[in-house]
Design brief:
InterPro entries: FAD/NAD-bd_sf, GMC_OxRdtase_N, GMC_OxRtase_C, P2Ox-like. Belongs to the GMC oxidoreductase family. It comes from Mucilaginibacter rigui. Keywords: FAD, Flavoprotein, Oxidoreductase. The chain is α/β, with parallel strands linked by helices. The chain is built from twelve helices and 23 strands. Strands 6, 13, 14, 15, 16, 17 and 20 form a seven-stranded antiparallel beta sheet that branches. The chain has a six-stranded mixed beta sheet with strand order 7-2-1-11-23-22. A five-stranded mixed beta sheet has the order 3-19-18-12-21, covered by helices on one side. Strand 9 and strand 10 form a beta hairpin. Helix 2 runs parallel beside helix 8 and helix 5 crosses helix 12. The protein is globular, with a radius of gyration of 23 Å. About 50% of the residues are buried. The structure holds flavin-adenine dinucleotide. Flavin-adenine dinucleotide (FAD) binds next to helix 2, strand 8, helix 9 and helix 12.
Length: about 575
């Protein structure tokens, strides 16, 4: 390289570079280091060291100046992130504030981000379901997007692999629509949830109800103890960072494991600008970084590069990686980079009451809900919309938090918190959206961030299919709660913008054919095979399951492939 002296070049050269240290980047780092590769993880945000950097983890409600609520002025300054349910006084330091990292909304899109070591793994709700064979077969069967280049059986061993290490609790339910995993003991449904389950399943032969599967250590195994993690205490204070390591995060699990190998270099405060493509070698050779504090540009070099900046930021990095060979972004010969973005439709929900056993209660704060895997269009197309939705519900007795009219002070409040109150039911949807060319991201031509990098322009919206699917959920949900004996059913369309689901995927999709996709079945760019994209950007479709377990499995699979291919000189 002409632009660095040889000492600098040697010091800045690694076997592998991973961009981003969140859920997928942490897995890439763990696998690549585990394979003996000298690995540099570049993270744009600040360092967050497990235990040390969880400032609110053990605080009581009364230790917070506003008892956990965000002051009005902060809410007004942050209309986007403020809409995220997990944003509060105890967790705000792990969220990106609106003004700090602006982007252009061609259409309303609530882009929720966590820029720090660990990324959104510190903030996520930890719901982790495997995809089923129906999900991978969906696009080919129903004729949307492109065919996935892999099937469930390709990923199944990698699901097992990541489940064993991360620690996933769940019940073995034996369902085709929601394959079982290698589970730790499940959480338990309460008495009313069980009763509703019984009544729904008695009435509908096509619907199954199971306890949620989630990345919490209900009963840690040796591998989890070796990570220094302990049993989940059901505190439900997870967004603060867990001092027990009771749930899976990069900070508590994959990153320290990678560090133990001695192969990991983690560089926080390193904003990746673009990937360097060498025209002569016809491969990527490194990454351009801007130091977040000094604004100094630095280059790092490696033989393979993993892009794990989270779906939309990975699109941004590739779009910004231009060269003579790739004037429209790295690997983007077909012009599809940034297109076919998908997300989850969370608009529908409903509440109800249940005249249930007033002498029954439940203890602890369970970190998961009750789930019903998708039952729509599973075996064949049977509605006037494509695909379907997963349904979640909970039954709670919430009155102990406040009086009937919401007061949290005074004698009436003290009396109220001694009584658990009547049973409330909450049900919500997680609908599949269809990836479309018209749902895309691109670079702004004029707006830049404070490091001179073009801002992302997001143009993503619902369509008629989403409206029909939402309507169906509201009708079916109401009917199911009614059949289960619930009363006072109130439905709601939040009309929330895409993005608030925080499950955005696509833009750098996998596929068989370089003409219609960006990545092959090993997550390599068809046109630049030493670059791997294994976060949500790679997803060809989105299914109805929470996405992160699939990102982990895809990443572990691709990283092992990449390390082996590197050793054989194939990349
Ligand atoms: C409140 C909440 C609840 C959620 N609940 C669930 C759930 O229950 N189940 C589920 O499956 N998913 C859930 N998610 C989504 C889940 O967090 C994401 O799917 C997951 O974190 C994605 O992993 P990732 O590695 O792609 O991205 P992230 O975890 O976001 O990590 C990306 C990292 O890349 C860094 N980065 C970005 N750009 C650059 C750059 N230019 N240079 C260097 N570094 C960069 C970021 O700072 C970040 O650290 C939830 C998210 C939130 C916020």
């Amino acid at each position: 390289m002409a632009y660095v002296n040889s000492n600098e070049f040697a010091a800045n050269t690694f076997d592998a570079i991973v961009i981003g240290s969140g859920i997928s980047g942490g897995w890439a780092a763990k696998e690549l280091c585990g394979k003996g590769l000298k690995t540099l993880v570049l993270e744009r945000g600040k360092d967050v060291v497990h235990l040390k950097d969880y400032p609110t983890a053990t605080k009581n409600p009364w230790d917070f100046p506003h008892r956990g609520q965000m002051p009005l002025v902060v809410q007004q300054e942050n209309p986007i992130v403020e809409r995220c349910y997990a944003f509060g006084e105890a967790s705000e330091h792990f969220f990106v504030k609106d003004k700090e990292h602006p982007y252009v909304q061609d259409k309303p899109f609530d882009w929720i981000r966590g820029y720090q070591v660990g990324g959104k793994s510190l903030l996520w709700a930890r719901q982790t379901q495997r995809w089923s064979k129906f999900d991978f077969e969906g696009p080919a069967r129903d004729g949307f997007a492109v065919d996935w280049p892999i099937r469930y059986d390709d990923l199944a061993p990698w699901y097992t692999y990541v489940e064993q290490f991360a620690g996933i609790s769940g019940n073995h339910d034996g369902l085709e629509t929601l394959p079982d995993g290698d589970f730790l003991p499940p959480w338990e449904m309460n008495v009313v949830e069980k009763e509703i389950r019984k009544r729904i399943m008695a009435h509908y032969k096509d619907r199954d109800v199971v306890i949620g599967r989630c990345a919490h250590l209900t009963k840690p195994k040796e591998i989890h103890l070796q990570q220094g993690r302990g049993q989940c205490q059901a505190r439900s204070l997870c967004e603060r960072g867990c001092p027990f390591g009771g749930y899976f995060s990069s900070n508590s699990s994959t990153l320290p494991w990678a560090a133990k190998t001695g192969k990991l270099t983690l560089r926080p405060d390193s904003v990746v600008h673009s990937i360097i493509y060498d025209e002569k070698k016809q491969k990527a050779v490194g990454v351009r970084v801007i130091d977040a504090h000094t604004n100094k540009a630095i280059e790092y070099f490696a033989r393979i590069i993993f892009v794990n900046a989270a779906a939309l930021n990975s699109n941004l990095i590739l779009l910004n990686s231009t060269s003579n060979r790739f004037p429209n972004g790295l690997g983007n010969d077909n012009g599809l980079l940034g297109k076919y973005v998908a997300f989850h439709n969370y608009r529908g929900s409903m509440s109800a009451s249940f005249e249930g056993p007033m002498d029954s209660y439940y203890y602890g704060r369970r970190p998961t809900a009750v789930m019903m895997p998708n039952f729509r269009n599973v075996y064949k197309q049977e509605t006037d919309f494509l695909r379907g939705y997963m349904t979640f519900y909970t039954a709670t007795r919430p009155r102990w938090r406040h009086t009937a009219d919401g007061q949290q002070i005074g004698a009436e409040y003290k009396d109220a918190i001694a009584e658990p109150g009547s049973w409330n039911i909450y049900m919500m949807m997680q609908g599949e959206t269809i990836p479309k060319e018209s749902n895309f991201v691109q670079l702004s031509k004029d707006a830049k961030d404070k490091w001179g990098i073009p801002q992302l322009r997001i143009s993503v919206d619902y369509d008629d299919n989403d409206e029909k699917l939402l309507k169906d959920f509201l009708v079916q949900g109401t009917e199911m709660l009614d059949k289960a004996g619930c009363k006072n059913i109130v439905t709601r369309d939040s009309k929330q913008a895409p993005g608030l689901d925080i499950h955005e995927v696509g833009g750098i999709r996998m596929g068989h054919d370089p003409k219609t996709s960006l990545l092959n079945k090993w997550n390599q760019l068809h046109n630049c095979p030493n670059v791997f994209v294994t976060d949500g950007a790679c997803m060809t479709s989105t299914s109805t399951q929470n996405p992160s377990l699939t990102f982990m499995a895809l990443t572990a699979r691709a990283a092992n492939y990449a390390a082996d291919a590197l050793k054989k000189g194939e990349v």
